[in-house]
């Protein structure tokens, strides 16, 4: 079923983009580095030891290549797309809800994987993934992947919540207090897929099989759920650091989150844990994509190769709480440890509904496109 869905998605996306010319042909050789590489990345993805000296996969690259790494962090996929549209960056660690938009907008170029020896080590489950492979061309190399977990306060929840209902439905929590004002939701239109994922279990009569391919009726049900959730939300989060502070000081006790926040809070000895509830979870599989007008393409290719080094992959996974795109990383990083990949969910790949940009034409027929998701979710958050 999973393979059939991926095939249908790939065919659909190929149809969507078939009329669009390639931005340019992939490079055929790598020359001398230009001295720098400018990257748009998720927070915590590119570390040079400034937060913790043990986590540094930038310094060695700069010494070996002479390419200085400059990073601009982005809190949402929409922000990444905006930054890449503005230009001035060589690479972006794009999630699936941004990657195909960047391809369609001709903001990224195909990558010649033959120039990247580390490509052969990439997880076979990711090598031709439909969120960055179009028309047989790879628009980047996989970076990391993982689920959007339910993060919760263990002083309130003595056992892990079994359902996402704790953030979607008004209720009293195990401490006897209401969840109103104590839960959060993600400040991004792709969060509509989280509502749809919850409804797959809560209202099976809706017939939702793909949270990114919603009919008008299914979409209306997801929006209605989110409108009701609005009364519960203390803050919509998009900044990982702000969410960490909210769990520490603002009384937030449950929210969809990333493993990065979970790791940060537990390292600070906060009463925090995470789970994937019975309905499953959305997730992200991020791709390092090369800008169509990259000023430093040689350094960019060198960085893509460096990013696939097993130790680098493992160190990133240890820091972010993600799963490496290179399976060899599971045994190559002391920071990740021998059980790190299992702990971070290496075997949960088929349980995650990876972010993907919704389009009008989908595998099931006519679906609600992402442009509607954006405008409607802004209206939901605005009350």
What report would you give on this structure?
It contains 13 helices and 17 strands. With about 375 residues, it is of the alpha/beta class. Helix 3 (about 75-85) runs parallel beside helix 4. The chain has helices at about 1-15, 60-65, 75-85, 95-105, 165-170, 190-200, 215-230, 240-250, 260-265, 295-305, 310-320, 340-345, 370-380; strands spanning about 35-40, 70-75, 90-95, 110, 135, 135-140, 140-145, 150-155, 185, 235, 255, 270-275, 280-290, 325, 350-355, 360, 365. The strands form four sheets. Strands 1, 2, 3, 4, 7, 13, 14 and 15 form an eight-stranded mixed β-sheet that branches. The protein has a five-stranded mixed β-sheet with strand order 10-9-11-8-12, with helices on one face.
């Amino acid at each position: 079923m999973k393979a059939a869905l991926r095939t249908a998605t790939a065919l659909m996306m190929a149809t969507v983009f078939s009329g669009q010319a390639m931005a340019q042909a992939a490079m055929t050789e790598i020359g001398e580095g230009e001295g720098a590489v400018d990257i748009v990345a998720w927070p915590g993805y590119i570390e040079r030891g400034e937060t913790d000296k043990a986590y540094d996969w930038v310094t060695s690259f700069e010494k070996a290549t002479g390419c200085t790494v400059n990073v601009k962090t982005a809190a949402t996929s929409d922000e990444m797309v905006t930054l890449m549209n503005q230009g001035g960056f060589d690479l972006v660690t794009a999630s699936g809800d941004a990657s195909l938009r960047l391809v369609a907008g001709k903001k990224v170029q195909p990558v010649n994987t033959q120039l990247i020896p580390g490509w052969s080590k990439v997880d076979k489950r990711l090598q031709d993934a439909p969120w960055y492979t179009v028309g047989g061309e790879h628009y980047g190399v996989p970076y990391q992947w993982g689920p959007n977990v339910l993060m919760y306060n263990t002083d309130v929840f003595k056992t892990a919540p079994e359902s996402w209902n704790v953030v979607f439905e008004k209720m009293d929590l195990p401490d006897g207090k209401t969840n109103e004002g104590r839960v959060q939701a993600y400040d991004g239109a792709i969060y509509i897929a989280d509502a749809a994922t919850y409804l797959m279990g809560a209202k099976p009569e809706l017939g939702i099989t793909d949270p990114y391919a919603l009919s008008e009726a299914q979409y209306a049900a997801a929006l209605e759920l989110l409108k009701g959730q609005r009364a519960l939300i203390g803050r919509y989060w998009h900044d990982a650091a702000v969410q960490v502070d909210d769990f520490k000081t603002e009384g937030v006790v449950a929210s969809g989150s990333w493993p990065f926040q979970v790791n940060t809070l537990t390292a600070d000895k906060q009463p925090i844990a995470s789970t994937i509830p019975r309905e499953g979870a959305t997730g992200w599989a991020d791709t390092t994509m090369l800008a169509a007008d990259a000023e430093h393409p040689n350094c960019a290719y060198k960085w893509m190769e460096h990013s696939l080094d097993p130790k680098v992959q493992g160190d990133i996974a240890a820091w972010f709480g993600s799963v490496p795109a290179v399976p060899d990383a599971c045994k190559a990083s002391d920071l990740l440890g021998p059980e790190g990949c299992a702990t971070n969910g290496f075997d949960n790949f088929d349980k995650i509904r990876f972010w993907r940009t919704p389009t009008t034409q989908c595998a099931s027929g006519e679906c609600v496109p992402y442009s509607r998701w954006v405008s409607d979710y802004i209206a939901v958050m605005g009350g």
